[in-house]
Write a structure and sequence with these properties.
Layout (H helix, E strand, L loop, with lengths): L1 H9 L9 H11 L5 E4 L5 E5 L8 E7 L4 E7 L5 E6 L4 H4 L2 E5 L4 E6 L12 E4 L5 H5 L7 E4 L4 E3 L3 E4 L2 H16 L6 E7 L7 H10 L3 E9 L17 E6 L7 H14 L3 E5 L6 H6 L7 E8 L7 E4 H17 L1
Parallel strand pairs: 3-12, 3-13, 13-16, 14-15
Antiparallel strand pairs: 1-2, 2-12, 4-5, 4-9, 5-8, 6-7, 6-9, 7-8, 10-11, 11-17, 14-16
Helix pairs in contact: 1-5, 5-9, 7-9
Length: about 325
């Protein structure tokens, strides 16, 4: 069930560059449903479902496993941890949040007093309950990373919130796609990528290795449906969004139109996404080698890069139907 798959992946620790626990969770879910699995030098998990047509195409889907976090840069005399962002962290949103390290050490992130300054990373520290540098160092070392602590909860029946929804929701979507595919004509390659939040690094090397004929990024997109926001024109619960463009790519027209057709055939609503910022794995696929036709299917998400990212499960269910039709049509 899509919701159960999502909850499993959201519970895994996995900041950028440390996605191995997420990869192991994915393996446990889909091992029986794919023909091959491998982890490459960048930490990407690459799985394949072989097509029945020897002359068929290679379709690459990419959803990133990593999420934003905090890396420890120093420990002061009183045991407080100074940190720097890993990916797009908002200091103001992070104050007084519960965080956790890979070894289970928990803490609270807070800000030192400021004088006529907005919160910045230089003001933030993590309190893990230690009274000295020596005591803190028994639990955490410089270079260790913390993430917003897992906290999955429901907002009414169809909507759910959690840290790391960006992009574990699309990892769950890709897992379900690989489970549902039954003897596809074309070979389907699922890439659960690393280090997207720090520059689509994993998808860049994966696309070079996979050599796809066509590619699709799977990621969240921000909503413009909350108070005083109108851009982008994306509404939670109104369907997945076909990306027209973002800062990193203009979607290939052939892929974009194939997604619209798949949505029509599946009988599910779809939105058009024009995002004036941001980037995702589809751009890395598109730029690979001599160029690859590529696009992106996005899940609307409120409050991205926060400890409570919100999605609507109806958008997820519709997206799965679109992807199944898309694979069938290619």
């Amino acid at each position: 069930m899509l919701r159960d798959t999502l909850k499993t992946l959201l519970s895994a620790y996995g900041p950028s560059g440390n996605e191995h626990a997420v990869a192991e969770a994915v393996k446990s879910l889909i091992a029986a449903h794919v023909d091959s699995m491998r982890v490459d030098a960048m930490g990407n998990l690459i799985v394949e479902k072989y097509g029945s047509d020897e002359q068929g195409k290679r379709i690459m889907f990419s959803a990133h496993m990593d999420h934003i976090g905090f890396v420890v840069t120093d420990i002061d005399d009183k045991g407080f941890l100074r940190v720097h962002n890993v990916g797009g962290i908002s200091p103001s949103i992070s104050i007084a949040r519960h965080v956790v390290f890979e070894n289970g050490t928990e803490g609270v992130i807070y800000s030192q007093p400021r004088k006529d300054e907005d919160p910045a990373m230089k003001h933030l520290f993590i309190d893990i309950g230690a009274d000295s540098r020596e005591e803190a160092a028994q639990c955490v070392q410089p270079g260790d990373m913390a993430v917003y602590a897992p906290d999955f909860f429901e907002l009414g029946s169809p909507r759910v919130a959690s840290p790391a929804m960006d992009d574990r929701c699309c990892c769950a979507l890709l897992c379900e796609l690989m489970m549902y595919l039954d003897e596809p004509r074309n070979t389907v390659v699922g890439v659960f990528s690393s280090q997207e939040e720090v520059g689509v690094r994993g998808a860049t090397t994966a696309a070079y290795s996979v050599k796809p004929d066509i590619g699709l990024g799977l990621d969240v997109t921000v909503c413009g449906d909350t108070p005083e926001l109108k851009i982008p024109a994306i509404t939670l619960g109104a369907g997945a969004a076909v990306k027209i463009m973002d800062r990193s790519m203009i979607a290939s027209p052939s892929v974009r139109e194939a997604l619209f057709l798949a949505a029509k055939q599946a009988g599910v609503p779809v939105q058009r996404e024009i995002l004036p910022f941001g980037g995702q794995d589809g751009s890395a696929i598109q730029h690979s080698r001599a160029g690859v036709p590529a696009g992106c299917l996005s899940i609307p998400c409120r409050y991205t890069h926060s400890p409570a990212e919100v999605i609507d499960m109806r958008d997820m269910e519709g997206a799965l139907k679109i992807l199944l039709k898309f694979v069938e049509n290619v």
